Structures are given as C-alpha cells and as structure tokens.
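Notes from the 1:1 (GR / supervisor)

We went over the backlog. Supervisor wanted to see one worked example end to end before approving the batch request, so GR pasted a single chain during the call. The sequence is below; no edits were made to it. Supervisor asked that the structure be written out right there so they could see what the output format looks like.
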Amino acid sequence: MTHQARQHSDEPGWPGQDAGRLMSGLATEALIDHLVARYHNAVRTLFPKVIAIARAVERLHSDHPDCPHGLANFLQVLSDELSDHFDKEQDDLFPSMLHSPQHNLRFPIDRRRAEHEDFSDQLDTLRRLTNAFTAPDHGGGEWRLLYDTCRQLDNDLRLHIHFEDDVLFPRFETAAP
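Structure output shown during the call:
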C-alpha cells in the first residue's frame, strides 16, 4: 500500500483496501475507464463548485478567526495541477498502457507516482486548512458544505492515487524489460 493510501487507511470507513481488491479483478481497459469516469471526470466537475463555495465562505466570514483564508486560491492551484496531471495520464500514459504495453513505461509511471506524492502532501495541507474538515459550530450550512465537499475531494483523490499506484501501475512495472 502506498504512502498516500496508508495515511488514512486506519480511519473508519476508508474504502481503499476493499475497493482495491475489487479493482484488481478488472481488465486494464475497464480499470482505466473507471478511473477516468469516476475520478478524473468527477473531480474536474467538483472543483469549480468547491472553489465557488470557498470564495463565498471567505467573503461572508472574512472577519471570523476560523475563516479558511486562502482556501479558494489553494483549491484553484490544486485543480490546475490535477487537470494537468489527468491530461498527462489520459493523453499519454493510459493510451501507452492500452496500445503499447510492451514499451518500458517506468519513467512515465515514476513521474506520475512522484506527482501522487506531491498531491498527497497537498491533501494533507487541505486537511490542515479545513481543521480536518470540521467547520466551526457557528459556521453555517455553506461552511459545512464546503468542508464536506473538501472531505469528498480528499477521499476521491486518495482512492484515485491508491488505485493507480497499487492496482494499475504494478501491471506495467513487472512487464517492463
């Protein structure tokens, strides 16, 4: 299990291990299709919404000491970096896996793993910025929605990393000459 998956695998309800076992039974094309539909596309859709909510919370609660100042900008940077990461996977790595699996994919896989480590660090920062996704009692519905959505992003991205690092990538690391 990767560092990213291990980090929260002891939390109640973290589904990575069981889901990983199920995902390992999928054919490579089905696994990639699932990763793109369930994680890449879903996360790309969720980011604009969570950024808008973060901007609203920061604006409405700017004078509150628990206000997550800078969260919207942090999420925007993370969104941009993830979009680039997803593009590299979908445009280069995944097609190579499907159509040229005999090629040595060690370098692109190592690069994606390094990016996953960076994203894991950014998710740790997100957890800190949101007080472990816990809105203040007086924060209101929008603040709770923001932190619930950030928790969903964190869970989705950690699962995405786990499935790629521990299920998909090993299929091609052992096949490399």
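Supervisor's comment: The two ends are 24 Å apart (CA to CA).
Batch request approved.
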